[in-house]
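User: ok so my PI wants both of these folded by tonight, can you help

Assistant: No problem, let's get them done. Here's the first:
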Amino acid sequence: MINRAILSEAKMALTQFRTLCITGPRQSGKTTLSKQLFYNKPYVNFENPAVQHEAEQNPEGF
């Protein structure tokens, strides 16, 4: 895995803010960065229509 300088900057930002917006072009490492930052949180991908539908129909239960 490539060690990116943005990882330490993102970690610092998370000490000051409750949220972090990660944007960029396709295949640029956004998901990898998210998984590194939030390794102890579940990962959900809304590209699957069934997952998206479940979240839309029951947001509290999701």
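One down. Here's the second:
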Amino acid sequence: MLYYLSLLTHTDQLAFFRLFKYLTFRSGAAVVTALMIAFLINPMLIRWLKVKQGKGQPIRADGPARHIIEKAGTPTMGGILILIPWLGSTLLWASPSNRYVWIALMVTAAFGLLGFLDDYYKVTKRTSDGLSSRMRLLIEFAVAGLATWLIMQSQAPSLSGALAVPFLKTALIPLGVAFLIVGGFVIAGAANAVNFTDGLDGLAIVPVMIAAATFTLIVYLVGNEKFSGYLQIPYVEYAGELAVFLAALVGAGLGFLWYNAPPAAIFMGDTGSLPLGGALGVVAVAVKHEIVLAIVGGLFVIETVSVVVQVVSFKLTGKRVFRMAPIHHHYEQLGWTEPTIVIRFWIVAVVLALLGLATLKLR
């Protein structure tokens, strides 16, 4: 909404408001605003959730034994601490007329509500199992499919329904209506991949912020005709505004990490992990960097693949490939300490983000 202040430049006294036109200024302001909102409301929200939940999130009985002792009583639904600053800052600084921003907000809100219901069920029923997996996936793919369709309707005919291939100059594979399946898979898959990764204090939020910061640069370049032409990547008109949305995510993530650093005061739960992953997915679909997301968010892919491999191996052979899945629990069982796992996974996330950025030039 503050974007409209840029129109108040008809006198020299109001010339300052010209800054509000610039995407870079509003993106930076979105980071600071989200962080300030987080510091203002998060302590109150944590106290409120502790009172409401009492015994906190039920801990998996089949998980690492130390979690039952060390993490018992920690409240969940901490995604609220991310969503309120994130969405609030986005609404303040993004252009209200930008369709891509509203599509991203729709996915974030829908996945956040779904995650909240899942966490609420766990807390009230005192179980580590939430809503039916089949029901959850059905809702996720329905929301993801709708978002993909809206994105297709918002793009130029040459881009709509096309899959971009990194490392090749403006290479697009026309998929037509079949792109609904691809886009739906990317958005819903990213949401669940972040959900699998969220198992240790700070493990998911930092790689999400790294991916979001990386895509902030990508969407800025994709939404700029000159830069996209120079880099020979698809130009998506108006998509640059998503930089504000992602920048607000980074600010909200920093505010959450302040309280989530080991030992965590609160778990983000599905309330946070689903919308965070869904947001990365919908942005990647909007700016035609779906495959690049698999590189930048490679850590989430590794976590998901470890679960798939474990399940398939056990069903086919009765044997487990890993001591426990997702793979971060495997390293716990090997004797790695939680901070060691988390920091090393952060390093992997940084390296993968740099590889993803390299695709912008290696064409």
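The longest helix spans residues 23-53. The longest strand covers residues 162-164. Good luck tonight!
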